[in-house]
Amino acid sequence: MKLIPTKNIRPGFELAKPIYDERGRILVQKEVRLTQSMVHRLQNLGVTYVFIREKDTEDIYVHPPIPDQQRMEAIQQIKETFKSVEVQGISNQRNYLLEKAANKLNYLVTEIAAELGKNEDVIHYLSDLLIIDDYVFSHSLNVSLYTLALAQEKNMKRTELEQLGLGAILHDIGKIILPDEILNKPGKLSDAEFQIVQSHTDYGFEMLRKVPGIPLLVAHCAFQHHERLDGSGYPRGITEAVIHPFARMIGVADVFDAVTSNRVYREAMLPHEGLEILYSGAGTLFDKSLVETFKKTIALYPNGMTVQLSDGSEGVVARQNYQLLERPVVRILKENGVKVSPYDLNLAKVLNVMIIHTNKLSPVK
């Protein structure tokens, strides 16, 4: 299978994986040949990338960090929790609902952590093949996946994983109070609007710290995940020594998912571009050791991605080298623009060749 940008797909392409909504309903089935109307629909729905079938890449597969069905059920659970709390204007009712939801969310975190522990693969691109009616729900799950993968790479204890995972799922719960027209504004926010967005950290903290069944540390994850080591973050502008390690971890995962997700005001970056954003702030905004550990948990160039190499060849990422994720195995399909008999090139062994472009920059021909 090949991963290509939705903006580059054409009628006649055949899907290699189905596209779902968050309730698990199939919107477009796999092995369907796309028509022009289907192409337009996918683009209008905000689908960023799709997997298509191709003879020379038929054996290339992407293993999801958790099964698709589990991912959709998790998003639905998060959505139900956030929505039930959103409609309750009285804090006591909110506290009751959050305490009730905490048990389900704790179980959800345990399931996700167990699934990630069984899966030896790194996390591949998450912003594809699933259409969500509200970014906050999918973002909350994605951040928990990235954060738990980071925690497991650091060999954290189970009790720490559970609190950290719950903190990651609930880190943005304060956004349920914010106006949709500001959260979903396609243009640049005014200073006043940005102050409103920043307030979600205070709202989340105040909501969570009063719930008996939720550890205070979880509330601090919501409070501190936008704080930065050099004091340039919000809401309090605290520095490295005061920011809790859990909030630092969630902060890394939060930024990575935010920049690699499609939003109304900008296109999604690819994983290696998202990691560059983190590295540009390593040591000043983000803990450098966390960024380096996080790099070990994600596929910088996911399986199925079209890449151009420095020797003039072009191909598709076939599999990962887990100790050297920036240098995967590439299925070579063209040399200097001419089709060749496909062969695999292991960039971990051929060190004089490197990836110079991805399919975001190389339109399908």
Automatic annotation (TrEMBL):
Residues 114-310 form the HD-GYP domain. Transmembrane segments: none annotated. It holds the Pfam family HD_5. Signal peptide: none annotated. It comes from the Bacteria. PROSITE patterns: HD_GYP. This is HD-GYP domain-containing protein. It comes from Gracilibacillus salinarum. The lineage of its organism: Bacteria, Bacillati, Bacillota, Bacilli, Bacillales.
